[in-house]
Amino acid sequence: DAKTTQPPSMDCAEGRAANLPCNHSTISGNEYVYWYRQIHSQGPQYIIHGLKNNETNEMASLIITEDRKSSTLILPHATLRDTAVYYCIVKGTGNQFYFGTGTSLTVIP
Amino acid sequence: ETGVTQSPTHLIKTRGQQVTLRCSSQSGHNTVSWYQQALGQGPQFIFQYYREEENGRGNFPPRFSGLQFPNYSSELNVNALELDDSALYLCASSRLVDRRPGELFFGEGSRLTVL
To answer: Which DSSP symbol is given to A5?
Structure first.
């Protein structure tokens, strides 16, 4: 599975869109991009995943560049409850998800 | 609420002891994975069970072992505990579809402290 690079931390004002970037320049054609988040002392929570098309669900949007070498998770209207560590994961058909150290997002009132 | 429950939530052991952690999977899920999360780090894959057999293992020694039961619940056993085993242990269930694992649904974890 390809490796990912994320900024260690970001801040976002409450009510504004939070845009979390992820680089995955070695991604291969059959690997998906997954996003999870982990609120302090809880288990990770699935957010969204995609292969090459942009995806949207009730939690977030995932924008994947045309060359698939990077992606952005968008939380359209961040709330204080969105403060968490966000993990970008590239996943093929193997069993394991490589979480890395993620981006610590702080939503500021 | 993921439907995945783990027990115990917290426990303290001493070096050299053995520990068993338990996980009840979400209904309809046939695969269970265990992850170890040290303080300040992301979760690290220990192993996965599918149809009661180990179906992949991360870089963990044999003293980490597991079981999956017919009702898809699972246990993680760690023998000869070391101080570095202190961590949050996470169980995640999923469905294996067309040989590709679906998204993971995590429990809240069991926090193990080894003294």
So the answer is: B
